[in-house]
Amino acid sequence: MATVAAAALVLSGCSSDAKKDDNAGISTDTAVNIAWNQPFYSFNGNSITGNATANNVILYLLQSHFNYYDADLNLINDTSFGTMEKVSDDPLQVKYTYADTATWSDGTPAGPADLLLEWAGQSGKFNNVEPEYDEETGDVTNQAALDAGVYFDGATPSVALITDTPVIEGNSITLTYSKPFADWQVSIDNNLPAHIVAKRALGIDDPTEAAAALVDAIDNNKVDDLSKIAKVWSNDFNYVEMPTDPDLYVSSGAYVLSEYKKDQFLTLKANPEYKGDNKATIPTVTVRYNGDPMSQVQALSNGEVDLINPQSTSDVLTAVKALDGIKVETGTEGTYEHIDLQFANGGPFDPATYGGDADKAHKVREAFLKTVPRQEIIDKLIKPLDPEATIRNSFTIVPGAPDYASVSEVSGQAAYDVVDIEGAKALLAEAGVASPTVRVLFDPDNTRRVNQFDLMVASAKEAGINVVAYEVQDGWGSDLSSATSYYDAALFGWQSTSTAVTESDANYRTGATNNFYGYSNAEVDALFDQLQVETVPAKQVEILGQVEKHLVDDAFGLTIFQFPGVTASRESALTGVVPLTIAPGIFYGFWDWSAGSAAASK
Q1: What CATH code would you report for 10-19+41-241?
Q2: What angle in degrees, to the nearest 10, is found between the helix axes of 194-202 and 223-231?
Q3: Strand 437-441 vs strand 489-495: parallel, antiparallel, or unpaired?
Q4: Where does 334-563 sit in CATH, by number?
Q5: Which end of the chain is more exposed for a tag (fewer CB within 10 A), N or C?
Q6: Which residues contact 498 (CB under 8 A, 6 or more apart)?
Q7: What fold characterizes domain 255-332+565-600?
Q8: Please, which domain of life does this record's source organism belong to (predicted)?
Q9: Helix or strand or coil: residue 566?
């Protein structure tokens, strides 16, 4: 159920690229309406492009997996979909067996070919080319090579440890790791239907024959076939409105996609082919997109939606508490705000800008970070919601967790707790860089982010740093990974998808899924190599502390605060909502939801 396959943080969906339309997505025959911030844009939530909360909260209802988290964050095996078993420690081998009840919505059984495809997509084993971009236009400059080669848009460090091709026997598939891995239970999971990918890539209509051809291409490294398969896996499942081809939304979960109007709403219907345990209790769910938190509150007040989880402000909290018949829950969420810097985009933080002078680029990065007014942001924007809110000073550990204090102390990030304008000026003077311009990527429709940006602009100006807003092109979430030449810093949130200790690996390892910035430190990579095989909790914490110290020493960026959360629901329309502190948040446990009389009469 939960998207735990990649064991990586996902881009938080606390944003919107949606048009503001107060009537968007209202359906008179929908049992339950839910407001959400950012529109869905990829059915492949495990690709680099699709790895975002906006996608994965929807996929949570559309896809089945071997594992999911319960309300207490215990990892539960969904035996109605299949089982996973560690069959060997040396080497580490894990056997996945699909249940007879594991079925795609087109009636095709789910099976080992599906997991084999996911391994090929995320391991990087078959990639023989990567996209190259024009620094000025951002256009791909090696399209011909990409078309001729193999490029899966995925890079998961844990899956890359599975270097040997997995072995299929009947309805089971066994994966062998090249070395022990602490988080093997959440390393990989089911994702896209292999028979559909093969049908589109290889032109084979029969599901059994298509899946067999895909297995053959992977087992025998058939480059021509793999090139086509990779393109379909990477590209075909990315869309922002209802596809004309129903193959592109074949699902394995409790719901199927039935309608999607660009930037407005997405409707899901109960999947008649679903044979698993966690069945849909509400026949129809519509997710209505609106990035304006107060507009969501208004929609809840008007009865247009039944559940909201907007990015909260003091005005939002006051407004929902004033509504009659609305259940309001507050608390810290599993998302944290942060700012990351670009290391290789030709901007002010890139050594190449200064003829390869890494020390000069480092001083400029450090100078900028000294101006980020983290405490002011918390005092003005977060404390009205959470009076106990403090600066988050760890890249990997949640505040309040047992090891947070020790990791934070080792990292030294607290040195940036207080804005140091004079220190920033001195660093710029030492670097010989006057009035650098920093282009910041953030969601321009997100009120809290706009307010944070304004505070950053004013603070940086005092040090002679010109902070400007990057102009969003294809949606800020898409631009984060595709427009790296055009912004110098990114202000957004990461949301946890699992409790895996290696979850942060994909953010900071060279070339990994969530490392959009060209950041590369061989010692950090080596530390993550150690973390992957370390099973002693105390030593895991020690390694994370060392990783964080490198991030601080390299002036990678800063964490700012843990999200204060507000969930509001109309109890007469919907009950059973139990928000999870990690993804999928408010969508967790939909199989326990009940539609009230108000919802049923819509």
Answers
A1: 3.90.76.10
A2: 110
A3: parallel
A4: 3.10.105.10
A5: C
A6: 2, 4, 7, 69, 183, 186, 582
A7: D-Maltodextrin-Binding Protein; domain 2 (3.40.190)
A8: Bacteria
A9: strand
